[in-house]
Structures are given as structure tokens and as C-alpha cells.
Specification:
Blueprint: E1 2-7, H1 8-13, E2 18-21, H2 28-33, E3 54-57, H3 66-71, H4 74-78, E4 81-83, E5 98-103, E6 131-133, E7 145-152, E8 156-163, E9 172-179, H5 189-195, H6 199-222, E10 226-234, H7 236-242, E11 261-265, E12 273-277, H8 285-295, E13 303-308, E14 311-317, E15 323-329, E16 349-356, E17 359-364, E18 374-375, H9 377-389, H10 408-414, E19 417-420, E20 423-427, E21 433-435, H11 436-460, E22 469-473, H12 474-479, H13 482-487, E23 499-503, H14 505-515, H15 519-528, E24 531-533, H16 541-547
Parallel strand pairs: 1-5, 7-10, 10-12, 13-22, 15-24, 16-18, 22-23
Antiparallel strand pairs: 1-2, 3-4, 3-5, 6-9, 7-8, 8-9, 11-12, 13-14, 14-15, 16-17, 19-20, 20-21
Helix pairs in contact: 8-14, 11-16
Length: about 550
């Protein structure tokens, strides 16, 4: 049946509605945000926590569900707003029937930046979502060849274009990022796998990413840059879906590999693309590319590289050059999905909380405090570390009132303690709050990571405190305060001086695999001899996991 989509802004400006064809019985949320007709949104895939899939029925709203009462206000529900993740596309009453829906204005921007606009943007911000170009390498004539490195992330797709003739000198022609168009299936890997279990679902997700990458290649060509070859580094699931491989082996134990990588592939509409090695079901090309980047630096060994997203991927290299990998499911909290005000890193999303004379203040990735309306994973970790230092949170994550001898700031912060839906919560600036369930989500991440770290170090024959360097990839390394990670027990005591932020190691490694002639063969040999661990599959995991459900216990 046909869905007709509008926003208040579209109605005000006289913009024609968006028309989508959907199958009756299909999840309404997926039908909308996997259609390719509206911009993708990072949603929680039916957890009923984020509210970003809300829609307003214009022709008689269905009966309110309990989950909608928990998230949406009474007045909002009375206006006809519902959660699309809890709804299905209805069966058409007749051939001419269509479902008319109103979307929030922010769901369909009317003036998006053109993906091919390589205009000079002053001080570029790679997290802004803008497509950015380097003013040094704009071609004045001809069409120079470039190499295109791609980090195919679950949330964002980051890219970097390198001039082939200047590759060894790091001649960056352009770079940028965009939201993975599969985000409408959910922000975590599990949701993507669920959507890709059918042939039609997998083809839809695959085509969304292929089309986005094809548009990028066309945009580069339109700006005088010809992509000669690519390297696409992603986790095993994202890579398999991109290549339209059967992913059933990744959906349930015993897990099986759908594809091993380590080859150049032909993808319709794209230049030849090198896929890095995929050593295991949950050890992908992204972490392997990260290892390649690590090897380019004189990093003191033994070192550990941690990339903590929906799935935690950890690489450890010993002093004598042995490589170990471990993977552990962490849940979507590290992607900013699940917690009450959780969002992926971006402008207007708190990446930390600062203690100020006026109280505790959220700060976003651009250093701004006003109008912060969401909290990233590192923002939550910052807040929890403050609570623990002030004695307002116990080792098990429970809120507690400060003693009479506590600092005035701690007592003032504790004044925000209350209850929401019968559960403890802390009121925060901007109308945000920290709920006990949010603390539990992050505590589960800490516990799973601690177990994986212990198992990996034990296999390598050392305690975690024996590591010389902790290398953190992605947003965790870029935005997390090392002291917060020590306070919460992500790293051993006195380990903050060992923490090194490596940024996007997957993208950097993919770039290195393109420009260094022997890099791919070197990485292939190293990954073939690596030892792979999956701590969550061992009989002792559950006991170790429950014992690690405490803040600040890492040894």
C-alpha cells in the first residue's frame, strides 16, 4: 500500500508529500526509514526508548499501546502521535487507500547540504555530517586519480580520498562522513542482522549502502576526482550485508563465517574494492585495519587496541609480536542507543559533563553547553564518574544520598534525585535525566569489557596492569576522559598515563592498506596466525560477568 508522508514545515512551504510503497504487515518504522526516500535516523529498533520513530496519524490514530504511554505525553498521544517501531503497515481496505502520516520536522530536513559540495568550510569538523573538501588539493584541470578509503561503521560511514600521485605523502583530496543509511533498521548490529535474515531484507540493506557509496563516487567525480580503487573496512556483519552474503551464521551460536575477506571484489556501480581480512564472526576488517595502523607507530608493547561499539573488538599485541583478538557483545549503549537521552556523537549531544560553579553542565563535541538535548556514551561515562567521585553512586550503580560531611556541590547535585515511573532518576540540565536503567546499561558494558580484557590478557600470559599502552579507537578514545575510565574500572588503577587516543583507526588503516604496497599481504599473514577468543561463548562467562558488574574493580 502507499504511505503519504509530510511534515509541518513541508505543509507550510507547499512542498509535495513523499510517497512510499510498503508491504502490509511490515514494520512501519523499517518501511519508512529503509525506503531510501527520507534521510536515515539512528533509532533503537523497537526498544521503545528513543522516540525518534514517532509519527502522527492524520486519518484516525490507532489505540494507544502501553509502551507509547511510557514514552509520549498524554497531550502528544491525544494529537495522534504513535511509535512507528510498535506499528505495522496496515492492510489496504481498497486499491486507492493510503496511510497519511505526519513526521517531525527534523526527520525530513528541507535544506540538506549537497553531498557533492566541496566548498571551503573554514575549520572543518568531521563529526558535523557535512561533506568536506581540502582546499589544498582541488584540481584546477584534468581528473586526477584518487584512492578512496571507507570505514563502514554501523552508525556512520567515514571516508577519505587520497590523491594517487601523492599517496605516499598523505595527499588528502577530500574527506567526510554520513549516517549509515541502514540506521532505520536499528542502530546496533543485532538489529541489522535481524533485518537481513530474509533475502529481500538483506538485498534492501545492501543496496542502501551501495547506493550511498555510488553517490559518493559520483560526487567526487563531479568535483574532478576519479576513484581508481577503494578499501572498505567494516565489521563482519556490515561487510557481509554490503556484499549480499548469507548472514545466517552470524545470527545464532555456533557462529559461522559468511565471508573471509582479504581480497579485492567487484561491486556493481563501484570501483574495485579491497576488503581487509575478517578473522572471525565478530572480529572484522575494521579492527584488522586498526591493527595495520597501530603497526605504523612505535607503540610500546604490549599494547591493546579497543574499539567499543555494539560489539567490543579488542586486539592485543605482546612484546614478542604475538597478536590476540577478542570480541564480546556490549549492546547498543556505546552507540548512544538505549539510555533515555542517548544519542550518537554530534552537535548538540553531550560528550562530557563539567563541574562548574553553576552546577554540572553538559558539553557537546564542539565545546558548547547551551541546547544540549542528548547524551553520548562518553557523556554518560563522564556523568557516572562524577557521581562516583562525589559518593553519589555505589559500586553496584545505585544512587545514594551524600553524608552530612559531603561537599556543598555534591549535596546540591543530589537534590536532583527523584523517581520516574517508580524508578530512581537524577534530573539534569536541559530537561534531561539519568535513570537507573541507564546506569545499568553502561554497567553491563563495563562488565562485559572487563571479562573480555581479563580473558585476553590471561591468554597472552599477563595481567591487565601489565599492558604498556591502552589504545582507544573511535569516539571513546576521542571524547572520554582517561581519569573517568580509571574511576569506572575500564582500565586498571594508575593506568590513565598509558591511555592513547587513536581516533578512527579503521579509516586510517584502510588508507594505509591502499597506499602501502605490502600492507595487505603483511596484514593477511599476521591475521592468519592470530589467536581468536570469544569469552561470551565460554561456560565461565556468566559467573565472571556477574562478578564484574561493579564500578571501579579492574585490576
Amino acid at each position: 500500500m502507499q504511505l503519504t508522508l509530510v511534515t509541518e514545515r513541508m505543509l507550510h512551504l507547499g512542498i509535495p508529500p513523499i510517497l512510499i510503497q510498503a508491504e502490509s504487515g511490515e514494520s512501519l518504522s523499517r518501511a519508512l526509514w529503509l525506503s531510501g526516500s527520507i534521510p536515515p535516523r539512528p533509532i533503537c529498533a523497537g526498544l521503545g526508548r528513543c522516540g525518534r520513530c514517532r509519527v502522527r496519524y492524520l486519518d484516525g490514530a490507532p489505540q494507544v499501546l502501553p509502551a507509547e504511554k511510557e514514552l509520549l505525553s498524554g497531550s502528544t498521544l491525544a494529537q495522534g502521535w504513535r511509535l512507528a517501531c510498535r506499528r505495522t503497515v496496515p492492510k489496504a481496505h481498497d486499491d486507492g487507500y493510503c496511510l497519511r502520516l505526519l513526521l517531525p520536522d527534523e526527520a525530513v530536513p528541507t535544506a540538506e547540504p549537497a553531498s557533492g559540495s566541496f566548498e571551503r568550510l573554514g575549520d572543518p569538523d568531521e563529526k558535523s555530517g557535512a561533506w568536506i573538501g581540502s582546499d589544498r588539493f582541488f584540481p584546477s584541470s584534468g581528473t586526477p586519480d584518487i584512492f578512496l578509503a571507507v570505514d563502514l561503521g554501523t552508525t556512520f560511514v567515514c571516508w577519505r580520498a587520497i590523491l594517487a600521485e601523492d599517496a605516499e605523502q598523505g595527499g588528502v583530496a577530500a574527506y567526510g562522513q554520513f549516517l549509515n543509511p541502514q540506521a532505520g533498521a536499528g542502530a546496533d548490529v543485532v538489529s541489522r542482522l535481524g533485518a537481513a535474515r530474509t533475502r529481500a531484507g538483506r538485498q534492501r540493506l545492501s543496496q542502501l549502502v551501495r547506493d550511498a557509496l555510488s553517490r559518493l563516487v559520483d560526487d567526487l567525480a563531479g568535483n574532478g576526482l576519479n576513484v581508481r580503487k577503494m578499501c572498505i573496512a567494516g565489521n563482519t556483519a556490515m561487510t557481509a550485508i554490503l556484499l549480499d552474503k548469507d548472514i545466517e551464521g552470524l545470527c545464532a551460536a555456533p557462529y559461522r563465517m559468511p565471508y573471509d575477506g582479504c581480497e579485492t571484489v567487484e561491486i556493481k556501480g563501484l570501483p574495485p574494492a579491497y576488503i581487509p581480512p575478517l578473522p572471525g564472526p565478530f572480529i572484522g576488517g575494521d579492527v584488522c585495519a586498526g591493527v595495520m595502523e597501530m603497526l605504523a607507530f612505535p607503540m610500546q608493547r604490549p599494547w591493546l587496541l579497543a574499539d567499543l561499539g555494539t560489539n567490543g573488538e579488542i586486539a592485543l599485541m605482546t612484546a614478542d609480536g604475538r597478536l590476540f583478538f577478542a570480541s564480546v557483545p556490549l549492546g547498543p549503549a556505546m552507540e548512544g542507543v538505549g539510555p533515555s537521552f542517548g544519542q550518537p556523537v554530534g552537535p548538540g549531544v553531550a560528550v562530557r559533563f563539567d563541574v562548574t560553579p553553576g552546577g554540572i553542565m553538559p558539553v557537546d563535541c564542539q565545546g558548547h553547553s547551551p541546547a544540549v538535548l542528548g547524551i553520548s556514551a562518553t557523556g554518560y561515562l563522564s556523568l557516572l564518574a562524577h557521581l562516583k567521585r562525589f559518593g553519589l553512586m555505589d559500586a553496584c550503580g545505585g544512587f545514594r544520598k551524600p553524608p552530612a560531611s559531603a561537599m556543598p556541590f555534591a549535596r546540591r547535585l543530589a537534590d536532583g534525585f527523584g523517581r520516574v515511573g517508580g524508578r530512581p532518576a537524577l534530573e539534569l540540565p536541559g530537561g534531561m535525566r539519568l535513570e537507573s536503567g541507564d546506569v545499568e546499561d553502561l554497567l553491563k558494558v563495563r562488565a562485559a569489557f572487563a571479562v573480555a580484557l581479563d580473558a585476553l590478557c590471561a591468554e597472552a600470559g599477563m595481567p591487565p596492569k601489565g599492558l604498556a599502552t591502552f589504545c582507544l579507537a573511535g569516539a571513546l578514545g576521542e571524547h572520554a576522559n582517561p581519569a573517568d575510565l580509571e574511576t569506572l574500572g575500564f582500565v586498571p588503577a594508575a593506568g590513565t598515563g598509558k591511555i592513547v587516543s587513536m581516533g578512527n583507526t579503521s579509516l586510517a588503516g584502510a588508507t594505509r592498506l591502499l597506499i602501502q604496497g605490502n600492507a595487505a599481504s603483511e596484514l593477511a599473514v599476521l591475521c592468519r596466525t592470530a589467536r581468536l577468543l570469544a569469552p561470551a561463548d565460554t561456560p565461565s562467562f556468566q559467573t565472571a560477568y556477574l562478578n564484574a558488574m561493579r564500578w571501579g574493580e579492574q585490576q
